[in-house]
Write a structure and sequence with these properties.
The complex is a heterodimer. By secondary structure, chain A is mainly beta. Chain A is 0% helix and 56% strand. Chain A starts with a strand and ends with a strand. The model of chain A has no long low-confidence stretch (mean pLDDT 97). Chain B starts with a strand and ends with a strand. The model of chain B has no long low-confidence stretch (mean pLDDT 97). In chain B, strands 2-10-9-4-5-6 form a 6-stranded mixed beta sheet, with no helix packed on it. A 4-stranded antiparallel beta sheet of chain B has the order 1-3-8-7, with no helix packed on it. Chain B is mainly beta. Classes of the chains: A mainly beta, B mainly beta.
């Protein structure tokens, strides 16, 4: 079964750090771009970052650039999101997702994990 | 690129035809994706490339449009379709989402 499962969420103080992980199974992880998307309570989905197959390229949304780092371990089928300098505005459910391609162009996130909640509060 | 969905919410009955629109602030060709999200759950892919139905998605869902104006249509609303629907563009970074359209029971 194709599956993604996030972990690592929790309560963190403002200014603190947290590392999220996403375990992939049921597909060839190293063949796909992977991404993180978040959703603050009652708000729209917000794309956070994505990463190339081999981890050599990461792209970030403006709101997290310079604070978050996306990485992957293809040997262990793991995706990570290192989050630093956290603020209340980063409170959200964080989803990892797989990006699919059609004729060489990425055009959707077709597999999503159930999400992990990150709460930034003192 | 900003995506604006309309309406933000709607009330409909089982069997109704429902149409949701997504307007992009600039030309995104056909790189528009639709998701369904139920409370407390992850989004599920419905349509990609503006009009291609994802495998396993019921045929009552359809998408159309290109450029800046897109439409998601549910031909006959079913009880399991009450949810929030989001559009997302894959034309350029950042991969923006619309604000969502909540479909509620009338």
């Amino acid at each position: 079964e194709v599956q993604l499962v996030e972990s690592g969420g929790g309560l963190v103080q403002p200014g603190g750090s947290l590392r999220l992980s996403c375990a992939a199974s049921g597909f060839t992880f190293s063949s796909y771009w992977m991404s993180w998307v978040r959703q603050a309570p009652g708000k729209r989905l917000e794309w956070v970052a994505n990463i190339y197959h081999d981890g050599s390229v990461g792209v970030y949304g403006d709101s997290v650039k310079g604070r978050f780092t996306i990485s992957r371990d293809n040997a262990k089928n793991l995706l990570h999101l290192q989050m630093n300098s956290l603020s209340a505005e980063d409170t959200a459910v964080y989803y990892c997702s797989r990006e699919k391609e059609t004729r060489g162009w990425r055009d959707a996130s077709d597999i999503w994990g159930p999400g992990t909640m990150v709460t930034v509060s003192s | 690129i900003q995506l604006t969905q309309s309406p933000s919410s709607l009330s409909a009955s089982v069997g109704d035809r429902v149409t949701i629109t997504c307007r992009a602030s600039q030309d995104i060709s056909s790189y528009l994706t639709w998701y369904q999200q139920k409370p407390g759950k992850a989004p599920q892919l419905l349509i990609y490339g503006a009009s291609t139905l994802q495998s396993g998605v019921p045929s009552r869902f359809s998408g159309s449009g290109s450029g800046t104006d897109f439409t998601l249509t549910i031909s006959s609303l079913q009880p399991e379709d009450f949810a929030t629907y989001y559009c997302q563009q894959f034309n350029s970074y950042p991969r923006t989402f619309g604000q969502g359209t909540k479909v509620e029971i009338k």
